[in-house]
Design brief:
Blueprint: E1 5-14, H1 19-32, H2 48-56, H3 60-80, E2 88-95, E3 105-114, H4 120-186, H5 192-213
Antiparallel strand pairs: 1-3, 2-3
Length: 215
């Protein structure tokens, strides 16, 4: 399907140089011309929101988001313009040098104005709007995926911290009991078997701490 053009022409004769015609063509052509933050918080003080921002900043979707939005915006602006393509200036000239050679020169300047085909502009606008919505929809979907992964990792980390704190508390308590048993063993109040039992509790608590702190 060929696009229709509306062309205006101006024709004149002159025995002077082509300066006037070129200046006119230049005037016509001039009139026609018309793109993340990283958190520095310590791990213990990192909030869920900060964890998401740090994870989202490393996603490839974010790196391409600005370019995709710019492309969608440019497509929308093009669909809203009065012409589907930029205006074009056409300048032609001829002389009588091969005939009478009287120094007569004839120039013709035209301005080509592309026109939208019936319904073409509306379809272009609908397509541009759909593309803009698709960009935002894909971005939202990517953010939701990242948020879900960060949330799961966050709560796993919180549970691991709680388990490590509980295990450390049990170890501290077992060590205090073992120290007290040692004192009472020296005083003759307890038997050696009690000391072995207390030391075994300390060893078990140490193993629990090591397991809780393992990556």
């Amino acid at each position: 399907m060929h696009r229709r053009n509306f062309i205006t022409h101006a024709r004149w004769r002159t025995t002077a140089s082509a300066t006037l015609a070129l200046a006119f063509a230049f005037a016509l052509s001039t009139a026609a011309a018309g793109a993340l933050a990283q958190t520095t918080a310590k791990p213990e003080g990192l909030t869920l929101s900060q964890a998401f921002e740090a994870a989202w900043a490393r996603q490839p979707e974010l790196a391409a988001l600005a370019a995709r939005r710019d492309a969608a915006r440019a497509q929308q602006q093009a669909a809203q313009s009065w012409t589907p393509e930029p205006l074009a200036v056409e300048v032609t000239g001829k002389t009588d040098r091969l005939n009478r050679n009287l120094g007569t020169r004839e120039y013709e300047a035209g301005l080509a104005i592309p026109l939208w085909l019936p319904g073409e502009r509306g379809r272009s606008q609908a397509l541009a709007q759909a593309e803009g919505r698709a960009v935002e929809s894909r971005t939202t979907a990517a953010q939701l995926r990242v948020a879900a992964a960060v949330r799961d990792a966050w709560w796993n980390w919180q549970r691991a911290r709680a388990d490590a704190a509980t295990a450390q508390g049990q170890l501290d308590n077992a060590q205090r009991i073992a120290a007290d048993v040692g004192k009472r063993l020296k005083a003759g109040d307890l038997a050696q078997a009690d000391q072995h039992q207390a030391d075994g509790a300390v060893a078990a608590a140490q193993a629990t701490v090591a397991q809780a702190q393992a990556p």
